[in-house]
Write a structure and sequence with these properties.
Number of helices: 9
Low-confidence stretches: 211-216
Radius of gyration: 17 Å
Helix content: 55-70%
Number of domains: 1
Number of strands: 2
Length: about 220
């Protein structure tokens, strides 16, 4: 799942005491930001296995720090505490932390069995990546419904929100339809990190001209 993670950020941003949308976009992908950074440093590992799932060939065989439930909970706690202190709002911190943790729960739906509770077996994953006819409309549907909820609550400039959605759909289309790499190198991690940073920057720009008052 890629843009589907941002559906939680959009929905959470509708809360009057939530952090801004850009912050929540970072929260939604914090686990993957950490994972691809750790892959580059050799702390966590993946490999490419053709046919790993119907939708991608990433074998995410070693990611105990970022994609175990305990690791995700730790990231959520740290992120929530930082947001709560930064914005001086326990509610904002709780919302930010919940968005971080939502990543693991959504990954559980789509991943093959590569998620863990504490970094060791059993490995978990319901495998919707093996069912594109279900996963693809589900992901896009979550994105547009949550964007509508955000727009109704926060009234951003329609054209800015349209730009953000266009960027997200373009990134998702690349993720789905670009040729699958056959050799693992740093480019996969770098492309992932660039995509997450780009999405967060555009989300920050969308919320920048908001007319209502928000905590940050």
């Amino acid at each position: 799942m890629f843009v589907g993670h941002y559906s939680v950020a959009f929905a959470a941003a509708a809360h009057p005491k939530a952090p801004r949308l850009g912050t929540l976009f970072v929260a939604a992908q914090l686990m993957d930001l950490g994972f691809f950074t750790f892959v580059l440093t050799g702390t966590e590992h993946m490999r490419l296995t053709p046919g790993m799932t119907a939708m991608n060939n990433m074998d995410l065989y070693d990611m105990p720090l970022t994609h175990s439930l305990v690791g995700a909970g730790g990231l959520a706690l740290v992120f929530g505490l930082i947001v709560a202190r930064w914005l001086r709002s326990v509610i904002a911190g709780a919302i930010g932390g919940a968005v971080v943790l939502s990543h693991w729960l959504l990954d559980l739906l789509v991943h093959g069995p590569d998620l863990t509770i504490m970094g060791s077996p059993p490995k978990l994953g319901l495998g919707l990546w093996n069912h594109p006819a279900i996963e693809m409309p589900l992901e896009i549907g979550l994105l547009f419904v949550s964007a509508w909820l955000f727009a109704r609550a926060r009234r951003p400039a329609n054209w800015r929100l349209a730009v953000l959605l266009a960027v997200l759909i373009a990134l998702q289309a690349f993720n789905w339809f670009a040729p699958q790499p056959t050799q693992l190198d740093a480019s996969q991690s770098v492309l992932g990190l660039v995509a997450y940073v780009l999405a967060a920057l555009v989300a920050w720009w969308v919320a920048k001209d908001r007319s209502d008052v928000q905590v940050a």
